[in-house]
Design goal:
The protein is α/β, with parallel strands linked by helices. It is built from 16 helices and 13 strands. It has helices spanning 24-39, 57-70, 87-101, 110-133, 139-157, 174-189, 218-227, 229-234, 245-257, 276-286, 290-302, 311-335, 338-349, 357-364, 373-382, 397-404; strands at 46-50, 74-75, 79-80, 161-166, 191-195, 202-206, 209-215, 235-239, 260-263, 269-274, 308-309, 386-387, 393-394.
């Protein structure tokens, strides 16, 4: 009855899983703040969602985009930026698709035709070649112009426009990053004059454009260093951390109470249920990581075929997932600078109530606590792996479990 064809769990960043856990704050931000304000013509910053691998950044915005599209909004596909690629070329192609959806391709207005032609050159040839081919404004300027036209069309249609750019940390070229952020930022802050019934004067409103950038925490340094206060004024940054165990348990509650519906093979519907102990085991094993949550659930689903997922099946399935869970955490640690990894290992070796900056610095072999201060600050404010409280604690609980205990062994 349970098979790979009907599993509701989906580890990986390329799909929105059916079993959704947490991130209610970010989902509510779109539904209650970003979209309503943008539709109403009120200014609202773009959103930058950062975090270590496996925390569900891309999946979160894909779910937001799916909801937006289902409600009739105009949405770009997930624009994943490969390392070394020309980001304006990819974004230009996506804007052209939005322009086509908005009906701008059929416009006879000279300014729109000119903007379309110029953006098509950027989409075909990239930044440097398009600049050599024709005189005129730089690519970021025409991208902004076309986004403004798309925004004007969205006003007339009564919809929002959502642009999602993923893997933004791969934009390593300073000029490309600067042009992209300025193009998007200028469109976000653009104000369109509109006539209001009963008023003799025009008023100005923001366009219904929403921009989401997702990527690794390194992007905060890149954007902050190159754009500084301008980036901060135009984009609000959130660094994701682990999901609370209560949210994970809530996501599995439907298995325990109602059962998960699947075809029974005879034209009807069967319900797959889960023992409370099985749900508790999944929550305990994944340590708040969305990727590991989906992985543990998937392996438990595959560990049997009956109508009840047992705790024993969760543990049996986890054996098959163990090496993947280890590799997931090790990739996070390997990506960190040596000093940051040393800090985390020293912190993990201490008792939870003894994790002060002074004790951690001593464990690292440093002469004074202030020598470890900048490292602790980056691990907290930039990477979101620790929290500098009294005492220090791990926000990334899978890293803590790997460094300080037997996890992922049972």
């Amino acid at each position: 009855m349970r098979s790979a064809l009907n599993s509701p769990f989906s580890p990986g960043s390329d799909s929105v899983p059916e079993v959704w856990a947490g991130r209610t704050e970010q989902l509510s931000d779109w539904r209650d703040v970003v979209r309503p304000r943008r539709i109403a013509g009120l200014p609202e910053r773009g959103r930058t969602i950062l975090g270590e691998a496996g925390l569900g950044k891309s999946t979160l915005v894909r779910r937001i985009a799916r909801e937006a599209a289902a409600g009739g909004d105009w949405v770009t596909p997930q624009l994943r930026i490969p390392s070394g690629s020309d980001p304006l070329k990819l974004v230009a192609a996506a804007i052209l698709r939005l322009a086509d959806e908005a009906g701008l391709a059929a416009s006879r207005e000279a300014r729109i035709r000119k903007a379309l032609d110029r953006v098509q050159a950027v989409a075909a040839s990239g930044i440097s070649l398009s600049l050599r081919q024709a005189d005129g404004p730089e690519p970021y300027t025409v991208l902004t112009d076309l986004l403004v036209e798309v925004g004007r069309a969205a006003i007339r249609a009564g919809v929002a426009v959502l642009i999602h750019i993923d893997e933004v940390q791969n934009i390593t070229g300073e000029n490309a990053l600067s042009q992209l952020l300025i193009a998007l930022g200028d469109a976000l802050v653009f104000e369109e004059p509109v006539a209001v019934p009963g008023l003799a004067a025009q008023v100005h409103r923001s366009l219904p454009l929403a921009v989401y950038l997702t990527g690794l925490p390194d992007f905060a340094d890149m954007a902050g260093a190159r754009k500084g206060a301008t980036f901060a004024r135009r984009f609000k940054t959130t660094t994701l951390s682990a999901i609370d165990d209560d949210d994970l348990a809530s996501a599995l509650q439907s298995f325990i109470i109602d059962g998960w519906p699947v075809p029974d093979g005879a034209g009807g519907i069967a319900k797959i249920r889960m023992e409370p102990g099985a749900a508790s085991a999944i929550v305990d094993l994944c340590r708040g990581e969305p990727f590991l949550f989906q992985l543990a659930g998937e392996r438990a689903w595959y560990a049997g075929t009956g109508e009840v997922i047992t705790r024993a099946q969760v543990l049996e399935g986890w054996k098959a997932a163990r090496s993947e869970a280890v590799s997931h955490v090790e990739r996070i640690l390997e990506r960190l600078p040596a000093r940051e990894t040393q800090f985390l290992r020293a912190m993990a070796d201490l008792r939870e109530d003894d994790r002060t900056l002074t004790r951690i610095a001593k464990e690292m072999g440093l002469a004074k606590a202030t020598d470890a201060g900048p490292t602790s600050q980056r691990l907290d404010s930039v990477r979101g792996i620790i929290e500098r409280g009294k005492p220090y604690s791990f926000r990334h609980r899978a890293v803590e479990a790997y460094l300080s205990g037997d996890w992922p062994d049972l």
